[in-house]
């Protein structure tokens, strides 16, 4: 598959960044074109509408989430530990795509809501393969989601706020999922 043109990438990045920093209402077609340094005609060549921009953003998030699930499934420590360990917003492209999709979902955007639910369900399915108890698997999922939420906010992240490190939370994951002993997958 050929690489998308640089203007298309710049426009999509501008849309993503506007959603993250200013919200859906500020991510107008004019604002996206201006931020990307592309003419309005150039924007319309690549994206006929704001809906087309949103669809492209959600497709990019799906692709990034698929790669993340592949890493999660292959992680030697297991999906549960991987999920919690990587559930700190570290400013990656996937983080920006995820936050942008959340901003769309907050406006009731049905496509964004569906993609976010799809991604969460796929992550939870991987955790459930390792942790068959549904309540424990859900607790692990919610632990990671909480970490992500707090680390996405401005200010101090959970370690400073709650006095608990990610390593300590991984030890809780191990206890909840019944892991014992030392070696890969134990704290």
Walkthrough of the structure:
The chain has 2 domains: 1-48, Arc Repressor Mutant, subunit A; 57-177. The protein is 72% helix and 0% strand. The chain is built from 10 helices and no strands. The protein has helices spanning 6-22, 29-36, 40-46, 50-74, 79-85, 93-106, 110-130, 134-152, 158-162, 166-177.
Measured between the Cα atoms of the first and last residue, the distance is 42 Å
Structural class: mainly alpha
Kindly state the number of beta strands: 0
Low-confidence stretches: 181-187
Biggest β-sheet description: none
Shape: elongated
Query: Percent of residues in helical segments?
Result: over 70%
H/E topology pattern: HHHHHHHHHH
Keywords: DNA-binding, Transcription, Transcription regulation
DNA-binding region: 28-47
Protein name: TetR/AcrR family transcriptional regulator
Domain HTH tetR-type: 5-65
């Amino acid at each position: 598959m050929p690489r998308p043109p640089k203007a298309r990438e710049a426009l999509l990045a501008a849309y993503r960044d506007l959603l993250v920093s200013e919200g859906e209402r500020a991510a107008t077609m004019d604002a996206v074109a201006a931020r990307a340094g592309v003419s309005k005609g150039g924007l319309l060549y690549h994206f006929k509408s704001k809906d087309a921009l949103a669809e492209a953003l959600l497709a990019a998030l799906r692709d990034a989430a698929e790669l993340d699930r592949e890493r999660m499934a292959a992680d030697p420590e297991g999906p549960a530990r991987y999920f919690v360990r990587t559930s700190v917003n570290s400013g990656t492209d996937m983080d920006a795509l995820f936050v942008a999709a959340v901003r769309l979902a907050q406006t009731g955007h049905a496509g964004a809501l569906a993609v976010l639910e799809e991604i969460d369900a796929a992550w939870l399915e991987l955790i459930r393969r390792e942790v068959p108890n549904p309540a424990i698997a859900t607790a692990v999922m919610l632990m990671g989601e909480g970490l992500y939420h707090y680390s996405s906010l401005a200010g101090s992240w959970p370690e400073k706020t709650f006095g608990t490190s990610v390593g300590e939370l991984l030890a809780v994951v191990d206890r909840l999922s019944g892991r014992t002993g030392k070696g890969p997958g134990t704290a």
